[in-house]
Amino acid sequence: MQLVDVRQNGERDVTRRLGIREGCLRIHTIGNDCSCGKMVTSFEIARGLNGAGVDAAFVATGQTGILVSGSGCPSIA
To answer: How far is CA 77 from CA 27, 40, 64, in A?
Structure first.
């Protein structure tokens, strides 16, 4: 068995705003409890926008989101 820190993945382009155009809308979902539905809400917003023909993506910043979505931009202090 191997323990892997998925936050150590080399993804940094989103945090530096490379390739993100000026008018790119970003929706920041926050909450004060880890079980209030932030990730589900973010996934559903992205899925709804994609269904409407909008280029949208969920960008995970934490370990669980990275594991669920398969990629992300970790926020490491």
So the answer is: 22, 24, 17
Query: What is the three-class DSSP state of 66?
Result: helix
- The single-letter DSSP state of residue 19 is T
Tokens 């932030």 locate to 38
H helices then E strands: how many in the chain?
2, 0
C-alpha separations of 49 from 23, 35, 53 in Å: 16, 24, 6
Name the pTM for this structure. 0.65
List pLDDT tens digits, range 16-64.
566 777 778 888 888 877 778 888 899 999 999 999 999 888 988 888 8
The answer to whether residues 60 and 49 touch, using CB atoms and an 8 Å cutoff, is no
